[in-house]
């Protein structure tokens, strides 16, 4: 999926104020896996640089300004395969289901708006948290079921292979769609308008695949693109899914799972708190 070209005399060049270039070349046909390789290689080279440079001058400290002289250049390669079904099938279906989940959950909560407020629903339901969970759980389970069915179709019917744990991907999917539902509930609670919440859901969920780093590279992207990518829940799910597809260790899925769980807790908790505060004021 990729490799790094390290020029001869790298440490000596850095220590003597030269500007060597470490080139990382990755398979652009499978951009998700290739991008993961490129980012990991870039981080590894950057972290190892101070030690590499210091070994060339064992009796002298190497200033940070010299360390920063190293340039890491990532370049996508070609080698187009005969079929993009595996690559695109793993990305497009979760992105479409993400958009559907965002819109249907926003609509489900939006139905309970009365005079731009969820206060009446909060009082009538008794417990707001169980009411929110019961309102969105059927959609989360149904969409998760569609996602699992698509994975089984790709693997069993089409013959593609997942090197890691399909069970972990299935659990990540459910958590991902629960996170999407929590964000939708928060948008409705904050905006108090179904149309506005649906528009916001369409904007962030509809553009999520483009900013996930799966189809368009984020290497060298500006601060906005990188920040927005990290904010979107799809980015973390794609990292989990593609990591398991390519056979990453289970430990590598911990960070994406924790990130997805944070959406459920923070966005869901924010929606719950917002609704309860408004209910007390009326």
Automatic annotation (TrEMBL):
Coiled-coil intervals: none
Membrane topology annotation: Multi-pass membrane protein
UniProt keyword annotation of Membrane present: yes
Cytoplasm found in the keyword field: no
UniProt-annotated location(s): Membrane
The name this protein goes by in its record: ABC transporter permease
Transmembrane region(s): 86-109, 136-154, 166-190, 250-277
UniProt keywords, alphabetically: Membrane, Transmembrane, Transmembrane helix
Main location: membrane
Residues covered by the ABC-2 type transporter transmembrane domain: 3-268
């Amino acid at each position: 999926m990729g490799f790094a070209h390290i020029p001869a005399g790298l440490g000596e060049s850095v220590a003597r104020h030269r500007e060597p270039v470490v080139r990382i070349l990755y398979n652009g046909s499978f951009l998700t896996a290739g991008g993961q390789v490129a980012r990991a290689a870039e981080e590894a080279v950057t972290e190892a640089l101070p030690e590499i440079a210091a070994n060339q001058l064992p009796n002298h400290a190497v200033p940070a300004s010299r360390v920063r002289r190293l340039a890491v250049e990532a370049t996508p390669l070609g080698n187009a395969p005969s079929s993009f079904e595996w690559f695109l099938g793993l990305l497009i279906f979760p992105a479409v289901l993400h958009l559907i989940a965002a819109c249907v959950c926003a609509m489900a909560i939006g139905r309970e708006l009365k005079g731009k407020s969820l206060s009446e629903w909060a009082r009538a339901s008794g417990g707001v948290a169980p009411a929110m969970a019961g309102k969105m759980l059927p959609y989360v389970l149904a969409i998760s079921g569609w996602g699992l069915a698509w994975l089984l179709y790709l693997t069993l019917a089409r013959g593609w292979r997942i090197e890691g744990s399909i069970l972990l991907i299935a659990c990540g999917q459910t958590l991902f769609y629960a996170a999407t539902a929590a964000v939708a509930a928060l948008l409705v609670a904050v905006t108090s308008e179904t149309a506005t919440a649906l528009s916001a859901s369409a904007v962030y969920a509809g553009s999520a695949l483009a900013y996930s780093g799966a189809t368009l590279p984020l290497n060298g992207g500006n601060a906005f693109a990188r920040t927005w990518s990290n904010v979107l829940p799809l980015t973390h799910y794609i990292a989990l899914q593609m990591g398991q597809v390519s056979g990453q260790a289970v430990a590598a899925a911990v960070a994406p799972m924790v990130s997805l769980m944070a959406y459920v807790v923070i966005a869901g908790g924010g929606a719950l708190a917002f609704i309860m505060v408004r209910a007390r004021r009326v």
